[in-house]
Amino acid sequence: MKQSLTFFKVIVPFLILGACKTKQEVTMSTSRAVVVTEEQGPQLLFLNFLIYGTEESELNGAKLVNQIRTAGKLKRAERGLKQQAEAGDLLLIFADIDKKPIKTMIYSNPLLREIEYPSDSGTMGRKIEKLKETQFSIRAQVPAGSAYIMISRSEAQRNREDTVLLTSKIEAT
Q1: What is the pTM of this model?
Q2: 166 touches 62 (CB < 8 A)
Q3: Are 116 and 125 in contact (CB under 8 A)?
């Protein structure tokens, strides 16, 4: 009887504590950028921004609210992307460790919202609303070799270099 009681007092707590151990590898964040490699498999990046603008709804600043990187692959190609940038569009740039662009994604200016509404005549009308700030979310496939993301305002058709609003390292999973 004493042996079974000792067994429960000593061995069972060790079994319980051993079952609580995490199976995931614990990584400490460092000040260096994490480079996404092909060996890690496909990676998804979920980004949430707060975008600021001027009175004319021109992109003026961006703040990264959060980013989540996880293993996975997009089922469909990124939607809502433009092929050609216009002045004032938002550019998401994936860059390598030296901040050289790897891939650029073009989005319409998020401060200009197109609203459809039913008019009194029964047809649908459209109106463009200019915002001073807005939240903006992006879901993207991370290209191999990426270490940084940059948000820029396109200066296309203005014969100027694009204006970088934000640069952030891609954080470890």
Answers
A1: 0.69
A2: yes
A3: yes
